[in-house]
Amino acid sequence: MNALISVSDKTGIVELAQALHALNIGLISTGGTAKLLADAGLPVTEVAEVTGFPEMLDGRVKTLHPKVHGGLLARRDVPEHMAALKAHHIDTIDLLIVNLYPFEATVAKPGCTLADAIENIDIGGPAMVRSAAKNWKDVGVITDASQYPAVIAELKANGRLSDALRFALSVAAFNRISQYDGAISNYLSSVQFDAEQASESVPERVAFPGQFNEQYVKVQDLRYGENSHQQAAWYRDVSPAAGSLATGVQLQGKELSYNNIADADAAWECVKSFETPACVIVKHANPCGVAVGAHPLEAYSKAFQTDPTSAFGGIIAFNRPVDQAAAEAISKQFVEVLMAPDFSAEALAVFKSKVNVRLMKIALPEQYGQVRNALETKRVGSGLLLQSADNHELALADLKVVTVKQPTAEELGDLLFAWKVAKFVKSNAIVFCKNGMTMGVGAGQMSRLDSARIASIKAEAAQLSLQNTVVASDAFFPFRDGLDVVVDAGATCVAQPGGSMRDQEVIDAANERGVAMVFTGVRHFRH
Q1: Percent helix, strand and coil across the chain, each to the nearest 5
Q2: Are 8 and 123 in contact (CB under 8 A)?
Q3: Are the CB atoms for 470 and 418 separated by under 8 Å?
Q4: Which of helix, strand or coil describes residue 353?
Q5: CA 423 to CA 392: how far, in whole Å?
Q6: CA–CA gap between residue 487 and residue 481 (Å, rounded)
Q7: Mean predicted confidence (pLDDT) in 226-247
Q8: Neighbours of 392 (CB within 10 A)
Q9: Helices (H), strands (E): how many in the chain?
Q10: Is-catalytic flag, 392?
């Protein structure tokens, strides 16, 4: 049995080669990998000795040879194939260990030139991987260091790889090639080619490539989709961002459903936007209660007050570890999913008897508020809408006061809070806030007036007073009537994007009503 080893990332490769050698498997290798193995005292045959042809063109050509691909592609159960190998003095290659040039890591570097990118496009590696993966019945192809232990374990136990493992390795290999080629296509499709610029320069790139390739890895099949008659599965990015929902670990509870995951993502992305301890409660993709506090219990208690009815069976997210006090308060309500960066031992004990409550632990890195998706997609009939994610952050300096009355410092703080919340509320969105707490949320209505009225109705149902609150509107007021509704409800300060042809009419109305109003200059439609 022979193994051909050609790796860019040499992590764990010496140990793997030592294990293969101990099993009397011959080692064939290329360039730097061969030297590394030889320096480790392992007997290794260089590919050039196998092919009878030296590496050339600075290593661009070394494994593109019939003695390599013949050894990989020959079917052992076809006599004509084996006779051809014998006639041409070609040995079989039974294991292929390859990882590819680091194209993705190279183009991710700020100073990457077009020449750097091109030189990190692997040719021989993908060709060998495809050959070995196609001939999976006879060849095991290893494309990631995480596969080494399983391969060695089977070889030690059985002297060969099982059909099941070889097929799984083949699938993983083709998946890796797909990811690799997709990354190359995305990069090159985004390059603004300029013949007058040398390839040694950093090329200008468009935000949206001419062809857009995405790759996802299945996390799990789901019981059903948005409705019980729909099928569904959950996938994650090939390389998920730290602090994202896809990196979470479920500590207990029933399997997550399609709607659980969608709502959990809405809650998690919202709570990550706050720097102080915060709690977000989501129902049907909309925040129904959001608050900040000195600790998780205070944040939860305030968020729950906003809309206790909608919070029933909701999704709850914290940006701080959940302690016993918060856990005991939450345990008194029906909750579908509870997410946090961590849970104390006492908090876990509180939920131990509530076996259906899904607890999700999602580690948050430093600067977690900035760890977000860069792009957003939406399927349409036979197509895809692609946009940069709405990651705009509003600062006090961005606010433009357009009324005679000036906001107080407390109102400005609440306006920034309300604006954060409004970004995660389905349009049309109207959010009343006070003292770092949502007081009424109007979401998803065709009319901004109706959203404002619903927010007032929900506040009344929760026995919350909207007197002296601030309001954030995710888009401009097209007429003064929307402003009048929120002022009638008790608001004294309003934040809206501005930009309507009737802005002056709304400003005049705010001055007439004696309230402060600021323009943010951006809107936050969320559909």
Answers
A1: 40, 20, 40
A2: no
A3: yes
A4: coil
A5: 9
A6: 10
A7: 92
A8: 14
A9: 19, 23
A10: no
Amino acid at 429: A
Q: What is the pLDDT of residues 423-448, one digit of tens each?
A: 999 989 999 999 999 999 999 899 98
**What does the pLDDT read at residue 365?**
80
With a pLDDT cut of 90, the percent of the chain lying above it is 74
| DSSP symbol at 8 | S
Is residue 117 within a helix (H) or strand (E), and if so which, with residue range? Answer: helix 114-119
- pLDDT tens readout for residues 287-345: 999 999 999 999 999 999 999 999 999 999 999 999 999 999 999 999 999 999 999 99
The catalytic residue among 81, 254, 284, 405 is 284
SS3 140: strand
Whole-angstrom Cα distance, residue 116 to residue 112?
6
Would residue 21 show up in a list of annotated catalytic residues for this protein? Answer: no
Give the model's confidence band at 198: pLDDT under 50 very low, under 70 low, under 90 confident, else very high. Answer: low
* Closest CA relative to residue 511, chosen from 405, 401, 400: 405
Rounded to 5°, angle at Cα 498 from 494 and 503: 95
Cα angle for residues 153, 154, 158 (degrees, 5° grid)? 125
SS (H, E, C) 202-246: CCEECCCCCCCCCCEEEEEEECCCCCCCCCEEEEEECCCCCCCHH
257: Cα within 13 Å, side-chain hemisphere = 15
**High-pLDDT (> 70) share of the chain, %:** 98
Q: How far apart are CA 523 and CA 19, in angstroms?
A: 60
Residue 122 has pLDDT above 80, yes or no: yes
Contact predicate 409/401, CB 8 Å: no
Helices marked H in 319-359 — which ranges? 324-330, 345-351
Task: Round the average pLDDT of the chain to a whole number and report it.
Answer: 92
- Which CA distances in Å does 50 have to 20, 65, 88, 140? 19, 10, 12, 20
Q: Which amino acid is at 189?
A: S
Between CA 226 and CA 262 the distance in angstroms is 9
pLDDT value for 196:
66
